[in-house]
Each structure stands twice: as C-alpha cells, then as structure tokens.
Amino acid sequence: MTASVTNSFREHLLTLLKADIDSDGVPYHIGISRAEPITASDAITAETLGSVYNQTKFRHTLQSVKVLSNVSYVIPTITWQSDEIYEAYDNNNPFQTNFYVVNSLREVFLCIEQSRLDDGTAQESFAEPVASLVNNTTKTLRTSDGYLWKYMYKISNLAYGTFRTKTYTPVKRIANRNTTIPEERDQLSLQDSATAGQILNIAIDSAGLNYTSPTITISGNGSGARFVADVFDNKIVNVRCDSNGFGGYLHGEGYDYAKVIVTDPGGGTGAKLRAVISPKRGIHYDPVDTLKCRELMLQTDFIGNEENTIVANSTEFYQVGVIKDLTVFGGDSAFTGNTGQAAKIFTIGTVSGAWVENDTFTNTLQTATAKIYYVDTNTLYYFQDEETGFEEFALGDNIINEQGGTAQILAKVNPAVDAYSGEILYINTLDNAVTREAAQTEDIRIVIQLG
C-alpha cells in the first residue's frame, strides 16, 4: 500500500503551530544548553537526539532561555542567476523547489513557463525578471530569454532582516488589512485580485509521434485557457500559453479540472498532455500554498547578558532547543519572563586560585560534585549531570576545583526557570561551540521542516 500526507496537511500543521506561538497563551522559549563538547562517547545521532533521555541531558545543562520573538513561514532560497535552468510550476510535484526565484530587488517570481529551444531542450535563463517590467493587469512577464514569470510579492525590509538567510526566504499571506508596510499593501492587493482556477501551463508527459500541426483544446469546468503546441521531429516538444495580443496571457479561470485534447490533421498520436492548474483560489491568494511551503522559521536574539538574566562571560553552548510551558523554579506557575536564568548559582566567598569553565569542583568531603559554567567575582554558575551526580551542596561548604582553587559557599541563588519543566519540542546540536560575551548578540534562527 502506498500512502502520503499532502502539502495541505503539512501547511495545516505548520499553521496550527504558528497560531499557537503567535497567541497570548503559553509562551514558547528558546534555550541554550550544553557547556561541554559533544564527544563520540555521547553517542548522539539524529535518531536519538530527540529521545527522552537526551531531552533530560539537555535540561541538566540548560543555561538560559529567551522568549521566542518571531515566527514566519519560509521556503528554500532560490536566487535568480544567469545561465541557470528553472522549472515551470507543476501541480504533480509537491517537493518541487526550483520553480520560483528571488531577484536582486528582493522580488519573488513564480516560473509558469520554461523557455525551450526548437527541439524542446530547456534553455538557460539570462534575463532577470523585474517587477517594474510586468504587465500591470496580469502581473505576468515574458522575459527576453523566453521564460514566462508571475510576480508574487516583494520581501519587506522587516521580513528580510528577520528571516532571510542564504538558505531560506520568508513567505506569508497578508492577514493584517491595516498594514502600513508598502510591500505588504502591494501583496494584499494581489491577494484580493487573485484569479481562481487558472491553467498555468501544460505538462508534456508523452511527446507522441507523427504530429504536423496539432491543435490543443481544453475541456473542463472553467473557460478561456488557450495554448499553442510546438513540434520538432513530429513530436510535441513544447506548449506555450497563447497571448491576447495586448500583453495578456490566456490562462483562463474557474478550472477545478481540465482535460487537454490534441487533434492533428497529419494523424499524430500518442501525446499525453496534462493541464497544470493553479491552487484553487489563485496563485496570489496564498503564496505559502503556491510556493509549496513546508518550513517554519523561529527567531529570537540573545542580546548580551539581558540584564544579568543570561549567562555571558566567555561561556560556551553547543545546543539550542525550543521549550513550551516552562514554569518558575520552585512553583507551578507559568514562566512568562522575556528571559530567564536556568543555571544553578552559588554566592561564594574567600575565593582563591583559578576557576575555569567546565572544571569539576567538590566539597571537602567529596560527597557532592559539580562543574563550573563560570565565576563572576563572588557568583559561581554551575551545573550537575550524570557524570557528577546530583548530590546537594550545603551552605558553609568549602569547595575546591581541579586547578586547586578554593572558595566557601555563602548562599544558594535559585534560578528563575525550572529546567525540568515544560515540553522540549526541538533540540539542535551545533557543529561548533558558540562563545557568549556580554557585548555580543546571537541571532538564533530555527527551521522546523515537515518532510
């Protein structure tokens, strides 16, 4: 048996997650964790990283959390480049990615017809699509290289700065009808004027034999679509959308279904042509749907020490996670702070010697052991894991570290966040450590993909 979830289902799940994050309900936080390098002995794989066991290890070394600030649908970045071949939009390929481009002006175009040579060979693009050149009625542009493009939207400065990366590009349906962002106003206009049920192009599933001058007829519940076939070596090698002679293209409208009928006076047979119909409400109605989005980007900035709520003194982290429904330390109420300390803290006195990150320290009786995040004058940030054990230190304990440094525990300072609360939804282990300093900002972007 063959089964598959659809892009609509993937988009639905992403929409539910986005709505939950955007709501005023339980906040989501991004956490930074793991002060020590990941070694082979940790045996962490892509399959085991999300296990309950590894979630618990993530909690042991959770340093700080910050509320998830921004969320957006994103699609893989396909930057228009000369001498590249782009595919026409195909409604029979849910994982298609090379069917749209982002140009040098941050404008997004959908490819609806590939340029082809006389023999049907796909031709490389050499003319960049630009919105100022499109037909203002249909937002369609035939570039000089023969490609046919549909203008979709322009990425705003805000969206570009928050979500655009070399790998991903933001995409959205504009829901705020009162938006004052010029790019969003333009996109809203396109959404409102979307043409439902257009036939964007005709896919050639089989070229057939013995064709001389074929005629294409569209049979379906819509109207107005007209296409022209090109023949080479008696085979149908290309099908082009017909023009109305005034810069418009005859994609028709109102099609939920369509059959492509080929007739030929020369007796050609065997061609199988397929109508590629736009999303039901039109390509501009929801670019998230049209561009086959399967990813959601979560973003927040860790800025310095965030008023001393975040560890930042040459400390390192190797893991990033997303946590929902954190509670305050020592209670059941939700943690609603913008940022929060999760590391354990001692106030110490009579400090001597060196105190180095990740060094182990013990009390004098060696009944309790922990590891150092860092020491800031008379404040010791530390963690315990399976290697150290979880025995409690007592007030007044004298402690000694691997370097021979000594100190006395004067007080325990509770963290703001209970590291063992909430649901961990995502963990990412980084290839290299990120070293935090009080004068720097980490722009953390997490992409959730539904394959």
Describe, in plain words, how this protein is organized in 3D.
With 451 residues, the protein is mainly β. The protein has 3 domains: 28-71 and 301-449, no CATH class; 74-193 and 284-297, Beta Complex (baseplate structural protein gp8, domain 2); 199-277. Helices cover 10% and strands 39% of the residues. It is built from 5 helices and 27 strands. It has helices spanning 7-22, 52-60, 157-163, 182-192, 287-290, and strands at residues 28-33, 62-67, 70-76, 100-102, 107-113, 140-142, 148-154, 168-171, 199-209, 215-220, 223-225, 227-232, 235-241, 251-253, 258-263, 269-277, 295-303, 315-324, 339-341, 344-352, 360-363, 369-376, 379-383, 398-401, 406-413, 423-436, 441-449. It has a 6-stranded antiparallel beta barrel with strand order 20-23-22-21-24-25. A 5-stranded antiparallel beta sheet has the order 19-2-1-18-26. A hairpin with a 2-residue loop joins strand 22 and strand 23. The longest helix has 16 residues, at 7-22.
Mean pLDDT: 92
Kindly name the structural category: mainly beta
Count of extended strands: 27
Rough outline = elongated
- What's the number of helices? 5
The N- and C-terminal alpha carbons lie at a distance of: 20 Å
Radius of gyration: 29 Å
Task: Write down the domain tally.
Answer: 3
Low-confidence stretches: none
Strand order of the largest sheet: 20-23-22-21-24-25
Q: In percent, how helical is the residue content?
A: 10-25%
- Beta-strand fraction estimate: 35-45%
